Amino acid sequence: MVKEQVERRGIADVRVLEAMRKVPRHLFVDPVLAGRAYEDAPLPIGEGQTISQPYMVAVMTAALSLQGGERVLEIGTGSGYQAAVLAELAGQVYSIERIPALADRAQGTLRRLGYDNVTIRVGDGSMGWPEVAPFEAIVVTAGAPCVPPPLVEQLQVGGRLVIPVGSPHAQTLRRVLRKEDGVDQEELVGCVFVRLVGEHGWQGE
Ligand code: SAH
Predict the structure, then answer these.
(1) Ligand 1: does its nearest atom lie under 6 Å from the Cβ of 124?
(2) Which end of the chain is more exposed for a tag (fewer CB within 10 A), N or C?
(3) For the chain, which domains are there?
C-alpha cells in the first residue's frame, strides 16, 4: 500500500511512510472489510461515514510537517486510523468525533493497539477544543464550507491547519499557516470527503 499508493505518488516524508507502514489499517475497519483495508480507496465504517483513502491520509499528514512531540488536533475521529498515524508522529493527539458510536469504537481500537497518547471526545470539532489549545497542527478529515475561525484561533504561531474546503461533493485540500500577523493559505489537491457537520460546517444531517 505505502509503496504503490503513497511513495510512488510523490510522498517523500520518510517519517510519514514509516508510520503508515506500522499502523495496521485492517484493524480499523469491520472484519468483513479487512481484506480490502489496503485498497486504494476510502471504505465505509458505519453511520454513513468512511475511513479515508490511504493516499489522502498521507497527503494530509505530510502537509502537517510533524517532527515529533507536537500537540495535534484532529477533527473527525471516524475509525481512529488517522489518529493512530498522527500518534506515531507527534507527542499528543486530541481527536473530536460528533457520532458517539464511532468515537467509542475508535477509542477501543486505539486502546487495544496501545496508543495511549490519543485523547478522544464527542462533540462539534468545528469549534475546536479550546480547553487544550493551542496546537502546533490541526487536521480536519471532513469537508467544510469554509475554514472555521475557532480552529485558526487555536493554532499556535507557526502552526499548520490542513482542511478540505469546498462544496459537499468536492473540495480542495487547503493548508493554513498561522503567522504572527494573520495567515498564509495554500491549496494542495482536489479531494472528496464526507461533510463536516456543525456550527462552522454544514448544518443538519
Ligand atoms: N479520520 C477518519 C476519517 C473520518 S470521516 C479516519 O481515519 O477513519 C469524517 C468523520 O468526521 C466522520 O466520522 C464524521 O462523523 C466526523 N465529523 C463530521 N463533522 C464533525 C464535527 N463537526 N466534529 C467532529 N467530527 C465530525
Answers:
(1) yes
(2) C
(3) 2-191 (3.40.50.150)
